[in-house]
């Protein structure tokens, strides 16, 4: 009876995984040509699901088939070469396949002792990341859920570090310390704002920015000179609208003179450092104390994979390290759970290793430069459409498009998302309504650029932009 049960369970795995493989492969193969928008909304998907939980179970393969049948019409083709919403990359073949293995292996990658295989792979990936991004060797690297949680991890370390510098014990909390000053440019991303609120720093006080969103360094200097409170400064590598980069060398020098901790939100822009052609955009960024980025954006690994990096690994483990009698004893080398605010997590760094191993140093540079080239191609094409203007200086991977009439621009965004050839986000920037194209997918080639420009031209004509 035992053997029969084992054989039946193994057969369920085989059949369920086979269905998943077939449906996943069919989905990936459809991305170049399918409509980007979902065909049905949430209510439509709910109508396709049997929402009654039955008394008896259902065959595993049938469950997977039912799931795919119900969900596929409601899926956004976020892996499409013509998806420009938010800042979301695709999934390289090696990274996607490695992610499947991560799920099958089911390793809780918190400690090096019980999960040596995935911990070792993540350590190699971490070292490769520091080399590619030009960040200090020996920095602590943690694999978080996304850019928001990576920013959160770094700001926890920043908070504690500036308190210790003033002789306060972080365990006493902020109330006994007199508070911490948190400064950022006017274009600070909402993920940093949220992370500041969660860590108790509060929303950052903004010190100004130029027209492209770069922090006002003079404004930062004035704010720092007001008093000598412990301070955390947030800088930005890649503005979400313009793609612009702060002047790191100057801003970091000003912050260092005030003994401030400098954190860099580089969710997608930090990857410019991996390109010989583009790394001038992040000149001086290695002088900061911490950095956050997101591998599911520019590196094109599957969700979820934020990366938190802190120059002083000891400070990182002091703030984020976990200690309990039931956990393995601390070794001389930090454990994975010493680098993020999680004890239990999947082996997120394994798909990062697979992507980097698959691409190599030159491949990563080609990827980053290809995204920037596609953004330039879009901007050049859009400039040829009557009635539209490219509203930002295109320096990296972001393109903001506007007409002279905000209502017409909004209508263009709605038309594009409904028509389905492309999907781009609408936003408000510098007091204008814009349609924002974030080029993040390695599949976005010359043909995707051509088809995107054609769709925008058709959309502009359809909504009356001349």
From TrEMBL:
Q: Does the keyword Translocase apply?
A: no
InterPro entries referenced in this protein's UniProt entry, alphabetically: Aromatic_deC, PyrdxlP-dep_de-COase, PyrdxlP-dep_Trfase, PyrdxlP-dep_Trfase_major, PyrdxlP-dep_Trfase_small
Keyword check for Lyase: yes
The molecular function terms of the Gene Ontology recorded here are: transaminase activity
Keyword tags? Aminotransferase, Decarboxylase, Lyase, Pyridoxal phosphate, Transferase
| Cofactor or coenzyme needed | pyridoxal 5'-phosphate
Output the superkingdom of the source species: Bacteria
For this chain, the family text in UniProt reads:
Belongs to the group II decarboxylase family.
Alphabetical list of PANTHER family matching this protein: GROUP II PYRIDOXAL-5-PHOSPHATE DECARBOXYLASE (PTHR11999), MIP05841P (PTHR11999:SF70)
What protein name is recorded for this chain?
Answer: Aspartate aminotransferase family protein
């Amino acid at each position: 009876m035992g053997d029969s049960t084992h054989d039946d369970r193994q057969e369920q795995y085989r059949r369920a995984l086979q269905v998943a493989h077939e449906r996943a492969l069919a989905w990936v193969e459809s991305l170049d040509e399918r409509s980007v928008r979902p065909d049905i909304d949430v209510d439509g998907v709910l109508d396709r699901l049997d929402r009654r939980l039955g008394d008896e179970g259902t065959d595993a393969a049938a469950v997977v088939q039912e799931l795919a049948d119900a969900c596929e019409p409601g899926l956004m083709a976020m892996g499409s070469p013509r998806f420009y919403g938010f800042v979301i990359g695709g999934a390289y073949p090696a990274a996607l396949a490695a992610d499947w293995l991560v799920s099958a292996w089911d390793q809780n990658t918190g400690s090096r002792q019980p999960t040596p295989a995935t911990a070792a792979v993540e350590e190699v990936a971490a070292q490769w990341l520091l080399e590619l991004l030009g960040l200090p060797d020996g920095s602590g690297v943690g694999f978080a859920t996304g850019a928001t949680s990576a920013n959160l991890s770094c700001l926890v370390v920043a908070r504690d570090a500036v308190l210790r510098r003033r002789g306060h014990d972080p365990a006493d909390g902020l109330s006994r310390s007199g508070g911490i000053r948190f400064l950022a440019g006017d274009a600070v991303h909402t993920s940093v704002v949220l992370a500041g609120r969660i860590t108790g720093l509060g929303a950052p006080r903004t010190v100004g920015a130029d027209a492209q969103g770069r922090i006002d360094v003079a404004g930062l200097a004035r704010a720092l000179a007001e008093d000598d409170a412990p301070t955390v400064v947030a800088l930005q590598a890649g503005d979400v609208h313009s793609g612009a980069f702060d002047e790191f060398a100057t801003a970091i020098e000003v912050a260092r003179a005030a003994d401030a901790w400098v954190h860099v939100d580089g969710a997608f822009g930090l990857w410019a450092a991996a390109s010989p052609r583009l790394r001038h955009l992040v000149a001086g960024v290695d002088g900061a104390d911490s950095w956050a980025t997101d591998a599911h954006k520019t590196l094109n690994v599957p969700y979820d994979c934020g990366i938190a990096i802190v120059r002083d690994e000891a400070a990182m483990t002091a703030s984020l390290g976990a200690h309990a009698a039931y956990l393995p004893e601390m070794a001389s080398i930090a454990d994975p759970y010493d680098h993020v605010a999680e004890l239990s997590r999947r082996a997120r760094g394994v798909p990062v290793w697979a992507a980097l191993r698959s691409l190599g140093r030159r491949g990563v540079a080609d990827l980053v430069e290809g995204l920037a080239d596609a953004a330039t191609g879009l901007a050049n094409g859009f400039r040829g459409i009557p009635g539209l203007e490219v509203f930002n200086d295109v320096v990296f991977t972001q393109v903001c498009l506007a007409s002279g009439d905000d209502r017409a621009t909004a209508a263009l965004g709605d038309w594009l998302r409904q028509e389905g050839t492309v999907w781009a986000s609408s936003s408000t920037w510098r007091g204008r309504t814009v349609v924002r194209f974030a080029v993040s997918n390695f599949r976005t080639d010359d043909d995707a650029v051509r088809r995107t420009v054609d769709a925008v031209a058709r959309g502009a004509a359809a909504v009356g932009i001349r």
